[in-house]
Design brief:
This protein has 14 helices and 9 strands. It has 298 residues and is of the alpha/beta class. It has 2 domains: 2-162, Rossmann fold (3-Layer(aba) Sandwich), CATH 3.40.50.720; 168-288, N-(1-d-carboxylethyl)-l-norvaline Dehydrogenase, domain 2 (Orthogonal Bundle). A 6-stranded parallel β-sheet has the order 3-2-1-4-5-6, sandwiched between helices. The longest helix is centred in the middle third of the chain and has 29 residues, at 165-193. The N and C termini lie far apart (57 Å).
Length: 298
């Protein structure tokens, strides 16, 4: 079985590394040739083009920033749809809209190519450790064939349902994550301006009902004022736009999510699109005229 992986960014590179380290014959493509070369030194196979990779592989993963990038890789002139062999399985692990996932599946089906939508949660730390949560939509048979590969990259793998169901689960995940990010940020500014050491606040609340994976991952970044991206503000905002599009189509009001989406929008307008999504604390700091100190204590 030959595996292809397209998209070796913050998330994709460590995910592909796990496949290589687990002994899967893995072909690699990214416009960033340095990322390809790094993984080639570990045993991956560098591909010169998407066409070359598509012709060689039985299962192809894509991990790309947005639906437009996925569409180009799948349906460009020398893309996967035109060049892959019938029976190939495409697994898109990007975060796209539900309608995009369904459209990709239908268009690939015309060329006898299977499609799974399999977005992930856990950010860069879980990608590096191989403990991502993977939410999968699509048919059962291709899911079972890909399952051993999912286990290389993730700790929790759930086949949620038909095509698009993986994206629905991811969007629900992003509602919870984004609102939680805003709550952690708001609480941190509140406690800090009251003069409390954020390290002690973190220790006090993490074991109670306020404890969460978001709090565990992001409060240390806030305390250390480390906003190098594990998940970028612009990507989180893109996900929230997909949430809004899907919610509108379903007739589901999302008042709190909409408010948080506008906070992300404000940070992008302020020039912070590429910072870690925990940097939305900047919005609350500016409103309170108070910046949380590096180290957590004044």
């Amino acid at each position: 079985m030959k595996i292809g992986f397209i998209g070796l960014g913050i998330m994709g590179k460590p995910m592909a590394r796990h496949l290589i380290e687990d002994g899967f014959e893995t072909y690699l493509f990214d416009i960033n040739r340095a990322a390809v070369n790094d993984l080639a030194t570990l045993g991956g196979q560098a591909s010169e083009s998407i066409e070359e990779l598509a012709k060689a592989c039985d299962i192809i993963f894509t991990m790309l920033p947005a639906a437009a990038h996925v569409a180009e890789v799948l349906f460009g002139e020398n893309g996967i749809s035109a060049k892959a062999n019938p029976g190939t399985i495409v697994v898109d692990m990007s975060s796209v809209s539900v309608s995009d996932a369904k459209s990709f599946a239908e268009r690939l089906k015309a060329n006898d190519i299977f499609f799974l939508d399999a977005p992930v949660s856990g950010g860069e730390p879980m990608a590096i450790s191989g403990k991502l949560s993977i939410m999968v939509g699509g048919d059962e048979e291709p899911f079972q064939r890909v399952l051993p590969l999912f286990h290389s990259m993730g700790d929790s793998i759930v086949h949620v349902g038909e095509t698009g169901a993986g994206q629905v689960a991811k969007l629900a995940n992003q509602i919870v994550v984004s609102i939680n990010l805003a709550a952690v940020s708001e609480a941190a500014v509140f406690a800090s301006k009251a003069g409390i050491d954020l390290n002690k606040v973190f220790a006090a609340i993490r074991g109670g009902l306020a404890g969460s994976a978001v709090l565990e991952a992001k409060m240390p970044k806030i305390i250390n004022r480390d906003f190098e991206p594990g998940g970028r503000i612009e990507i989180n905002f893109k996900d929230l736009n997909n949430v809004q599009e899907t919610a509108n189509s379903l007739g589901v009001p999302l008042p709190v999510t909409h408010l948080v989406k506008e906070i992300f929008s404000a940070e992008i307008a302020s020039g912070f699109a590429k910072k870690d999504h925990s940097y939305i604390i900047d919005f609350f700091e500016r409103m309170a005229n108070h910046q949380t100190p590096k180290g957590g204590k004044q």
